[in-house]
Structure formats: C-alpha cells, structure tokens
Amino acid sequence: MSAAAAAETAVAPAPPPADAPEAGRDVAADHIRALYVQTPATLTGNGIGLLLMAMIFGPLAPGPTVAGWLLVGAVLWVLRLGHWLRFRRQPQAAPALLHAWRGSWRALVLSQGTLWGSAVWLFWGLGTPYHRVVLIVIVYSYCLGSVQLLATQRKVFLAFISLVLTPTIVRIASDNTQAWNLQLAFVLTLLFFLTVLMARTYGNALGQAISLKRRTDELAARLRQEMALADEARRVADEARRAAEAANRAKTQFFAAASHDLRQPLHAMGLFAEALRQRLKDPEVASLVNSINESVDALEGLFGELLDITRIDTGGVDVHPEPVRLKELFGRLRLHFEPTAFEKGLMLSFRGEQHVAMADPVLLERVLRNLVSNAIRYTDDGGVLVSARVRQGGPGGTRHLLLQVWDSGIGISEANLPRIFDEFFQAQSARPLEAHHRKGLGLGLAIVKRLAVLMEAPISVRSRVGHGTVFSLEVPLGRAPRSADATPGIGTKAALGLTLQGRRIVVVEDEAAVREGLVVLLQAWGAEVQSHDTVESVEQWLAAAPPGPAPDLLLVDYRLPQGRTGLDALAALRARWPQQRLPAILITGSSLGGHEEEAVTHDFHLLIKPVLPAKLRAMIAFKLNVRP
User: Fold this and answer.
1) How far is residue 605 CA from its own chain's centroid?
2) CA 113 to the chain's CA centroid
3) Which segment of 93-102, 146-155, 280-289, 615-624 scores lowest on mean pLDDT?
4) What is the DSSP letter of 436?
5) Which has the closest alpha carbon to 1: 145, 118, 129?
6) Where are the beta strands (DSSP E) in 412-552?
7) Residue 558 in contact with residue 590, Cβ under 8 Å?
8) Contact at 8 Å (CB) between 470 and 478?
C-alpha cells in the first residue's frame, strides 16, 4: 500500500449512515466534525499520491496529459483544504450548517474517486510491467483506505469504489496487448466484491462501536449529572444538618436557660409559702401551703424531664464508654438520695460496690438516678436496694454486670408492665395514689429507656403489686483502673436536738427574693441566720467580725455575681475555721449536672432549684443528723 493510501486510512470514526435509526442530527454533526478533524491526514495522503504519480508517469506519459491530470488533482486538493480552513474558523458550527457542508464534502470525495479511476485509462500500458503493478497498487490502496473512511456511509462508499475500480477493470479487460489481462480483470473484480464485503462487515462493527460509544457517553453524562445532583443534595443536606444541629443546640440552651430562670421564682415562692405556714397556725393555711409546695415540686420534675428528653431527641447526648467504679458511683447516689430516704424513714442500701462497669459514666449515673428516684417516690415502707453482680452468658460466653434497683413499694400491675417505658404513660395502681406518686409527665422511665438504648444496655422490669419492683440493667463488665481515689464517706454527726433552735446558719444567695425567703424560713425554724449576696460580702464579714463560734451549716448558691461561685464562698468560710469541717449544702438552678464530682471533692450536698421547704428541711436535718 502506498504512503498516500496509508495516510487516507488514518482517519477518525466515520459518521453513521443516514438511515441508521440511532443517528440523530446532533450525533451526525459530531461525526462530520470528526471527518473535518482528520482532513489534514487525508490531504497529506492525497498530496503524496499526486507526487508519486508525477514522479513515476511524468517521464512516460505525454506532458499535457500528466499536467492536466495533476492540475485537476491539485484543484480538488485546494478545495478540500478550503473546506478544512472554513471548519477551523467555525469549529462549533450549527448542525444544519455542518450538514450543508457534508454535501460539498461528498462531491469532492466522489470527484477524487473519478480522478483515481481515470488514472488507469491515462497511464495504463506505459513503461514496464512493474509500472502497471505500481499503478494498480496505488489505485487499490485508495479503495482500501476508503473502507475505514466511508464504510458507515454505504452509498457514498459504493459510489467511490465503483468510480475507482470499474474504469480500472474495464481498461485492463479491454487491453488485448497484455497477456493474462482477463484473468487480472477477474481478480480485480473479486477484490471489488471482497472490498465491498469487508466494508460492510467493518461498517456494521463500526456502527455498533459508535452506538456503544454514544450510549457510554450518554451514561457518563448522566452519571456526571447525577453525581453533581448528589453533591448538591449532599451539600444542601450538610447545610440543613448543620442548621438543625445549631437549632437543636439553641433549643437545648434555651430550655436550660428557661429552666434556670423559672426555677428561681418557684424556689422563692416555696420558701415564702413555708414561712407563711410557720407564722400562721391555721389548718386551712397549712393545707394551702402544702398544695403550693406540691405544685412547685411537680414543676421541678417537669423541668428536669423536659430538658432531658429534649437533649436526647436533639442528638445532644454522646456515648463515651469507660471503666466506672461502682464504689464512686454508689457514693454519689448515696450522697444525693440518702437525705430523701432519711426523711421518709426508708433504708437506702448498696451492694456490689467493688465491681467496675464499662459504660458511659454520665449516662449510667443518670439512669440509676431516675430509677432510684422512682423507687423512693413509690415506696412508703421498707427500703430501696441498689445492687450489682457479675453474670455469665453474654455474647460469646462473656461476663457482664447486672445492675438492679429493688424497692418494696406499691408495685406495677401485669397490664401496665408492657407500657411502663412509654412516653407520657403513668401506671394506674389498684389503690389510689398519694399526691407525691402522681408527679411528673411520665417521662422518667422513657428517658431511662432511651439512655439504655444509647448505651446498648438491655433493661427489663419485674414487679408484684403490693410487694415491690425491680429494674435490671445489663452493662459490660469493666476492668478497674490502676489508681483509685477513695470516696469520702459521709460522717455521722452527733445528735443536736430536734429543732434548729440556736443553730447558726450562713446563707449566700444573690437573688434577693430567694435570699429573703431562706432567711425568713430558717428563722421560723429557730435558726440564727447570717445572709450575704456575694463572695466579697462574705470576705468582708469574715475580715470585720471578731472570732466566734463556727456556723453549724453553710447554705450557698452555686452561681454568684462577678464570675464567682459557691465554691469560693465555701473556701473562704472554711478557711476561717480550719479545724472544723463545716457541713455545707450547695443550691443551683442548673439541671445539666456536672457538680457531682465537686460535691465529693469539696464535701457538700447538692440541691436543684426549686427546693421544696420539706426537701430543704430533710437535707438540713440529714446534715445535722436531727429529725425535722
């Protein structure tokens, strides 16, 4: 094959046939652009072919014949070059314009086929047999090169190859001066049909390849579009998630702030109501004060439950398991609930404090707090037991820790047990419930269930009406850390009498209404009260007052002005009487927790506002070891 033919075959995929069902006008326009893109290679091949013909047959043929043939070839070559330059100026021409250009392009292709077919009539029989062989090779090379270029355009291809090979076959068959001329013409006829068959096969394969490429391009474009849509949806979802998280944080902060601010007047209201009862001995007034105190206590429970359920629902609770020493956990529970149990005459016991659990310490403590609080609330006689023991039979034969809260309270009926963890559900007892049994929205056990699910700790309940209830929580067994700090025990103080008569109590509270209510109530109980509103006031009093007997009790608010806290006030007061460990109660309006470790470290008991007078009296009696 000649260099010209080789260059002719180096073309891009040809456009699909006009009758192909999948060839839309836009797709055909893309194929036309591909034909123009490969035009430089085609022009190079045709130029080389013209030069070869001039070099080989120029000396053999008459000058005017060679010159005329080369002139026609040069004109066609220049016209095709002009076509290409026009495309270069408008590479993104409209499909309609490209289709108009394809008509002139086909005319030029067929004209070039006529040119090469006429070469055989003009130059056959000149020179030696080798010249005739070269002529046939050059002409047939362009036929082979047209297979790749025109195979998918059957009509154009058949016209082109007929214009090239038909004159060649006729010219050779009619030359009786050459031996074997008819045989050579027959061979060229066979090559004609074989080339047509090859072009058909190649055209079908190329058409399928073009269809597959088009389908692949469509799928790739659709994939890119879907990925872009997915990225956009992901971006919108991320923005929505961040906005939702911000809204959830704002809602949680709002509930916390509202809870703190609303607790203050409720706290003062309860103190003033109790002070009123102390001054007026009328039974009707006492009954009204009891109703007020019960309402305040119920509101406190509602605030705590609503804040907890809000934090869980908004995803504000994260789980971080770590080894939890039950000795320290039980110590904090005892510190918090022993005064309440002491007031009701119940025994609060703990067993298995030597064990270590693998759980989130904050969530585990919150679950046990709710369960112990419920147990004490619904138990009037007997006691409450919090136990821990190792059990076998976990996944893969592993051991786990079974935490249980037992009580000897009123119990839960079989009909109510399946719904005990539902929100806003309160079990109905066979006997009328006392007022303190009906407090809350029924969210306490719902919170317990959700926290247990977060920790992946199975929880269950068993109960008998009139005998009591036991809640069971299964957590992984942990391994004790190397170092352990002993939990300070709760000292037992000598009995000081049955009233607060003559007892000296220091109150530090910045809210005027709450401070006044505390002073009035404590004085009504017989105590001598020294009140302050800031840590600076306490420090000034300590600096100015002569040494005297130490206070019997410190009653301090946690959040104080100028960025100070009740811990600063405790430190200042205890520094004045370092030989005595002054008992202290710290009161806070924040229900978000975080003060339990400080309570152990600084030896105080914690109360959450609003504090009912009965609860305050029980805590004071517990701290001083006297019966209210």
Assistant:
1) 41
2) 67
3) 280-289
4) G
5) 145
6) 459-464, 468-476, 504-508, 528-532
7) yes
8) no
Residue 349 phi, psi (nearest 5): -120, 155
- Residue by residue, DSSP assigns 302-355 as HHHHHHHHHHHHTT------EEEEHHHHHHHHHHHHHHHHHHHT-EEEEE-TT-
How far apart, in whole angstroms, are the C-alpha atoms of residue 292 and residue 613? 11
Query: Tokens for 477?
Result: 């067994």
How many other CB atoms are found less than 10 A from the CB of residue 428?
10
CA distance 214 to 205: 14
CA dist., res. 535 & res. 510, Å (int): 10
Look at the block and give the residue holding tokens 């005027």. Answer: 512
How is residue 437 written in tokens?
């049994």
Give percent of the chain above pLDDT 70. 73
Q: For domain 318-476, is the CATH number 3.30.70.1070?
A: no
pLDDT band for position 120 (50/70/90)?
A: confident
Collect all residues with Cβ–Cβ distance below 8 Å to 78 and sequence separation of at least 6: none
Alpha helices in 91-180 (DSSP H): 95-123, 129-150, 154-173
User: Model confidence over 319-363: pLDDT tens digits?
Assistant: 788 899 999 889 888 877 888 888 888 999 999 999 999 998 878
Q: How far apart are CA 344 and CA 361, in angstroms?
A: 28
Structure tokens at 2: 């000649």
Residue 387 pairs with which residues in a beta bridge? Answer: 351, 404
Backbone angles phi, psi at 357, to 5 degrees: -105, 150
pLDDT tens across 64-79, in order? Answer: 988 899 899 899 888 8
Please tell me the distance from the alpha carbon of residue 374 to that of residue 470, in angstroms, as a whole number. Answer: 11
**C-alpha–C-alpha distance, residues 456 and 476, integer Å:** 10
Query: Phi then psi for 454, rounded to 5 degrees?
Result: -60, -40
Domain locations in the chain as residue ranges: 3-178, 318-476, 504-624
**Per-residue pLDDT at 154 exceeds 60:** yes
Closest CA to 112 of 42, 31, 35, 33: 42
Give CA angle at 396 (393, 402), nearest 5°.
35
> For residue 239, what are the CA distances in angstroms to 227, 231, 247?
18, 12, 12
* Mean pLDDT over each residue of the chain, to the nearest integer: 77
Nearest CA among 555, 623, 598, 509 for reference residue 263:
509
Note the residue count of the chain: 628
Q: Which amino acid is at 291?
A: S
Q: Where are the alpha helices (H) located in 392-494, listed in sequence order?
A: 444-454
Listed residue (262, 261, 271) closest to 292, CA to CA: 271
- Provide the sign of the torsion angle of the four alpha carbons 146, 147, 151, 157, taken in this order: positive
Q: What is the CATH number of domain 504-624?
A: 3.40.50.2300
Nearby residues of 361 by Cβ (< 8 Å), 6 or more positions away: 322, 324, 329
Helix (H) or strand (E) holding 265: helix 181-279
